[in-house]
Amino acid sequence: MLLANYFQTGWRNLLKNKLFSLINIVGLAIGLAACALILMFVKHETSYDNFWQNADKIHRSHVTFSIPGRDPMHATSAPGPLIHALKKDFPEVEYATRIGGWGPTINHNGQVFVEQIKLVDADFAKMFSVDVLAGDLELALSDNSSIVLNESLAKKYFGDSNPLGQVLSLDFNFFKKDFQVGAVIADTPRNSQLDLPALILIDESAWEEQNWMFHGWFSVNAQLYFQTQQASDLDSINRQFDDFANRNFPKMPIGGDDAKASDFIKLSAMNIQDLHLNAIGFGEMRPQGSKTTVITFSAIAMLILLIACINFMNLSTAHAANRAKEVSLRKVLGATRSNLITQFLGESVLMTLISVLLAFVMVELALPFYNETLNQELVVSYDPSTIATLLGLAISVGVLSGLYPAFILSGFRPATVLKANKSAETGASLRLRAALVIFQFAVSIGLFIATSVVYSQMQYAKQMDAGFNKDNMLVVNRVSREEASNKRELLLKEIAKNPQVTAITYSNETPGNTNENNTMMRTPEMAEEDALLMGQRAVGYGFFKAYEINLIAGRTYDKNRADVSPTDEQLRAGEKFPGSIVINESALRRFGFKDAQSALGKTLITGRGDPEENLSVDLTIIGVVDDVHFNSLHATIRPEVYPLSADFGNSISVRFTGSPEQLVKDVETLWRQEIPGVPFSYSFVEDNIAELYQSEQGEATMFAAFSALAILVASLGLFGLASFTADRRTKEIGVRKVMGAGVFDIVKMLMWQFSKPVMVASLIAWPVAFYFMSDWLEAFVYRIDTSLIIAMCGLAALFALCIAWVTVASNSIRVARANPIKALRYE
Amino acid sequence: MITIKNLSKRFTTEEVETTALNNINFDIKQGEFVAIMGPSGCGKSTLLNTLGMLDSPSEGHYLFNSEDVAGYSESQLASIRKKNIGFIFQSFNLIDELNVEENVELALLYHNISKSERRQRVAEVLEKVGISHRAKHMPSQLSGGQQQRVAVARAVVGKQRLILADEPTGNLDSEHGREVMEMLQQLNKEGTTIIMVTHSPEHAEYADRVINLFDGEVVVQDLRAVS
User: Fold this and answer.
1) Which range of residues forms the domain containing residue B142?
2) Which end of chain A is more exposed for a tag (fewer CB within 10 A), N or C?
3) Given an 8 Å threshold on Cβ–Cβ distance, is B55 in contact with A741?
């Protein structure tokens, strides 16, 4: 009966104070919805690869090359021979498998496809608890002529017919081979760093000619996973890795006689569940997550919820004045304090439950945009555990934010309240409210600063001159496949004829392609062991002109001059003649040349062929070009050389004007006609560059959105609070008006009242925001000036003041314009 | 000082029109002490608010120092009000968040007076009403009588020539009521014009003249009319 009464008063109170209820419910719903969205993201990000049966015992080895004068190079792949050494030296390693990738062409029923095939070792089947849908995985990975397909590929090639025993013919460019489907596995879940569309057993003998693939100690082409007997074995293996590297790696050609492998090479291993958020380096199969993002988003979720709870507390206590009479009457009629606390807690839980329902609606509405921005496929799962969690969250939020108001309200003394007909609010509760408002503003200001710094850095990255023209550049891929390679000259000539095309070139790498390719180089004056590690990108004729890269001195490659260096075969046959080389400004400095002009005509020596052959070639510097950002601004520009690749290139780059669609159509028609055996593949440089920042961009957008939400929720609360405060001060304002204060004086006074917390909040937020944001910027090699953060701080405070003023102004003006006698008479 | 001619005040709501003051006429001279009496709802407070320029008449003339203010705008009224008129309320109307000194200073705050002069005048007037030892106390720490003394101090600190008191003793016991009345009498002797609304015949005795209102009309306007 009492409960029904509570519910009735609660419900009526909710309806009676519409503004108060609306702000509380909507504010809390936004808070809960934002929190739920973020938690879904965080849950997904932290669940990577934890579904493997032996997840705690499966680890991946990483390698870092630290070469003097260069940023350390982190790879998530390992040298091919490492697996054998690992199994030999560490008895605690039970199983190990490499997972390398290759994209062979598959000719099937007259159609050609290119598929990502994973090359694995036989232990794979014992380590990874993949869902086998048909066939025998272990059997399929025990012979080198079987292939394992995932469900999607099996459907793609064989439809509804049984794929087992069917044959696919794979062209690896270096060799062709038929494979029989031995098993079908489920598609790899989204929350895995692994991507396993198809598996075949590594047959090292098939790759003998490409010995860098599985035999080179200084070439990393496949990831290496191993399973230990105990989860704790990882630590001891990590501790022994230096000695292990010194025992197994061949002598590096640098550092002199005393140098050890561990001076330049650091091996490490990480548990598979940690890879998504913690691994550093190139060579991942799927995009990585960011631990910073997960932590930041979690923090924002907590803050938004906290702000919404504070609103609830502040508005409830401010609102208390209006309910003092009810409380007192209930007490006079025999209610105990605990009765009242139960009543008020019940009311706040009722409000949170309504918020939860609203929050669900908000989440469902926001999810498509959220997924698109973050490139995720998150869904709300309405299973009992999720619902229980959310209800639990709602009830704890309700209790948490209702507890303080409940204690304040239930503490009113009826005699005082009924006699004076006013609230008995204490100074302590007023001070607490002021402190909470300051906290909300500090959070809002901090988030504003953070968002604007992130946004500025993004803009900076977008607008920074990368050193080449990324617009209107089409990249045609797969040019190095045998069939296409044979027709390269024809392609170049035919595409160039298109009236849309203004320049054309070919190269091994294009901007946005983050492959690490390096070579040792020295001047004739340098000792062999002092040779320097240079990044290299092989380019074709016309590369610099097509990409509009600035030439500082000299010239670029010219078909009519003897720029081509001798091939390995020519060198083996004893032919020795110099080739040409173009270098960048960083390389110029690294070699110690005085300036670009003086470097021209100088010789650089580099090794060729297999190390034991001891072949070398002399290259004459013919040109020096500007430093160019081929990769994201996270990385410094490498000292780089651009050797001429006269008759080989992975891709053709086409500079064009006019409609990209038309050009793609024309080029595709030409390609299909000339190279029917290789599927056409293209991209635009602009998109490839944008892709480098895609996840950052999405996260920055979400960060901005969540910050805006936090600020919105805080403003909602402030609006409610301002309206209560203005009402509470009605009498004071009346007295002041009688004393001669004008409307402007009153508005000014109320505005100032709300400006003070903003200023105090600014003083709190500034140093914190500065600390975190300058730290965040550190991750970018090329970044906005730190002093810009200070400007953002000022801007944020101004912004917060404006928000406070706008929020407070409407209430203030209303109260200030009211006739004072009313206020004074009814007091 | 004040001449009221044919003054009426009507309040209109959606359904009814109430005549609070109906065709009122009287004069008040500089230095007079006038009590306004009458039963509840007779229009005393409305009259006082009109005299205090917190409310405008619906009809008639209100000559304040020979100036007809009846049609003045709110800001014009506010300007005359703050120079000339001090208010004392039944419920004191002190601001809870300000201490005694600050409450009194409030009346000078909107007058372009330097801080040092404000401080000096506040100190003088607190001395005068005998509450200077409580200058730093908050209103809640004072008795009703003390609070009303602060309100009196606030009403006169601006050297206002007219004080409007709306039942200044209504919330006080007889002892404190008498104190406040003596204080008002003293101010009147020093030249301040006082118009006071009261229910108490005893306190009306302090006035030179009583205006009796009934249903919005002046029924008796005579010295010691009630005695």
Assistant:
1) 33-57+74-222
2) N
3) no
